[in-house]
Amino acid sequence: MEGITLAAIEVLPEDIIEKIAAGEVIERPSSIVKELVENSLDAGARTIDIDLVKGGIETIRVVDDGEGIEIDDAPRAFLRFATSKIREFNDLVKVRSFGFRGEALPSIAAVAKVEMFTRKRESLEGTRVVVEEGKVKEVTPAGCPPGTAIKVTELFHNVPVRKKFLRSPLTEQGYSLDLISRFALCFPHVHFNVTLDGRSYMTIPPCSNIKDRLPLLFGAELAKKTVSLHYDRNNYKLSGFISQPDLQWTHTRYMYCFVNDRFVKDSFIQSAIIKTYRSLVGTKKYPLVVLKIDVPPEKVDVNVHPSKLEVRFSEPAQVFQLIGETITKALAKTYTGWSN
């Protein structure tokens, strides 16, 4: 094999650096929906409206009634690593918010056109910010309700190689809808409204607990065939629901796991669930599970993966055992096909 002739080492231009960095956070329209909804939740929103046009490929708009952003901070929100969540590295061990790295808005703005309206509740006037090619183009006063509204258009217009890997609008839309369902499960007190191509698609009214959300998202009959999960001791709290043993699936699509209110696709947690379930029920299939794990922030590292879908526990053996005990105790109430 012939050697490759290498050019001199040079530092990449800033615009290329921003596009590469954005690729670690923004993969498709649902990535943008995730980041914007998480920002809304961090802002204390009680109502979040999500509008998608052509699956989000053409337009994504997320509107919330959260606390809004100060006029001086509004353009600063689009600077990379600009954040209100942490001030020093040690703050990472106690962070409870979704965002903390200051990457979401800059990453979106690097690969799309962004328009933001925002206003603090106590302010008489709001702010409009327009960002193109990662650069703030306009900052003007604006009349708008309290909260924040962000509109994203022309996704990947400047990164055509990434745009061609997007799926059909219907498929991309499905990714976002699945994501919204996860948020709805974890945050029952928040009102979600979803509009697709200008038509109201789904309204998820607020309720007091996850149990009340199950019928709306999975159907009343399926919701009736779940049992509650509960553990609360020694700073560890597990809660949620698992389907009764006569309801099984050939996939893990209905396994929803949250750590400190953050949705995760963590192989360690899934392994604990699957191993316990199969040892009890004697099947190679999977249950429906909604599992929320709450631990002190210093006992879990959420900064493991760029998309924060994986976590690392400081006491993994204890977490594995608690998941097993909690599921075993729950299924023991309704299933007599095995004995302790």
Kindly report the CATH topology of the largest domain.
Heat Shock Protein 90
Total individual domains:
2
| Count of beta strands | 15
Strand and helix order: HHEEHEEEEHHEEHHEEEEHEEEH
Rounded average pLDDT: 87
First and last CA, distance: 62 Å
Short key terms for the protein model shown above:
Heat Shock Protein 90, 15 strands, 8-stranded mixed β-sheet, 5-stranded mixed β-sheet, alpha+beta, Ribosomal Protein S5, domain 2, 340 residues, elongated, 2 domains
Describe the protein's architecture and organization.
- The protein has 340 residues and is an alpha+beta fold.
- It has two domains: 14-204, 2-Layer Sandwich (Heat Shock Protein 90); 219-332, Ribosomal Protein S5, domain 2 (2-Layer Sandwich).
- It has helices at residues 14-25, 29-42, 104-111, 160-163, 169-186, 210-218, 220-224, 267-281, 316-332; strands at residues 47-53, 59-64, 113-119, 126-132, 135-142, 147-153, 191-196, 199-204, 226-233, 236-243, 255-259, 262-264, 289-294, 300-301, 312-313.
- The strands form three sheets. The chain has an eight-stranded mixed sheet, covered by helices on one side. Strands 9-10-13-11-12 form a five-stranded mixed sheet, sandwiched between helices.
- The N and C termini lie far apart (62 Å).
